[in-house]
Specification:
By secondary structure, this protein is α+β, with helices and mostly antiparallel strands. It has two domains: 138 residues, Jelly Rolls (Sandwich), CATH 2.60.120.10; 45 residues. β4 and β5 form a beta hairpin. α5 runs antiparallel to α6. The radius of gyration is 18 Å and the shape is globular. The N and C termini lie far apart (38 Å).
Length: 189
């Protein structure tokens, strides 16, 4: 659980008693590859910290095509935060791309942490801002670049990830066909 504690301590000062309290409100959740952390049509059950593995966020567009819009690797938070907080039905999926292990917090546990540790809401807000900035930083360059550049940027932001997840999901994330991705990968080597 040390990676989790180190992560949250980047965003605020907590003493051992407070970090022990936070850990006492968590539990470990393991998912097999392709299982869902959260599903469209259901209320998100957890906020999670990914200890091992990779997850992807995806949805189905109005043509019924599956679209991958982000990946999250180890030592990062994973949640459909807005819908988790409001306890409303999600419109996207969070799926394990590899076998995963999370430290998870139920809504009651998350609220209890916020109600007990005075500085937690500030820490939580800084964590959310950090996650949002990372997502924007990773997605923004993809909008205006050609496919080969998008692939290169993807490899910079997610080194080695292309070998851990299905190429169809990488292609979807990059907004290209799997055939185009294969051609780009052959030419880049």
């Amino acid at each position: 659980m040390e990676p989790f504690i180190n992560y949250i301590l980047q965003f605020g000062n907590l003493n051992k008693q407070q970090t022990d309290f936070i850990l006492s409100r968590s539990k470990v959740l393991k998912l097999q590859k392709e299982e869902y952390f959260s599903e469209a049509g259901k209320i998100p059950r957890y906020v999670g910290f990914l200890l091992e593995g990779v997850v992807r966020f995806c949805y189905y567009n109005n043509k019924g095509e599956e679209i991958t819009h982000s990946f999250v690797e180890e030592n990062n938070f994973v949640s459909d935060q807005q819908r988790f907080e409001a306890q409303i039905i999600s419109s996207e999926y969070i799926q394990a791309e590899t076998d995963c292990m999370f430290l998870v917090f139920s809504k009651n546990a998350w609220d209890e942490i916020g109600n007990t540790i005075l500085s937690w809401k500030d820490i939580e807000n800084l964590i959310l801002k950090n996650c949002l900035l990372k997502a924007i930083e990773r997605r923004s360059p993809l909008v205006s670049e050609d496919a080969t550049s998008r692939y290169s940027i993807f490899n910079e932001h997610f080194p080695g990830l292309v070998n851990r997840v299905p190429l169809s999901h990488v292609a979807s994330y990059l907004g290209i066909t799997q055939q185009s991705l294969s051609r780009i990968r052959r030419n880049v080597r």
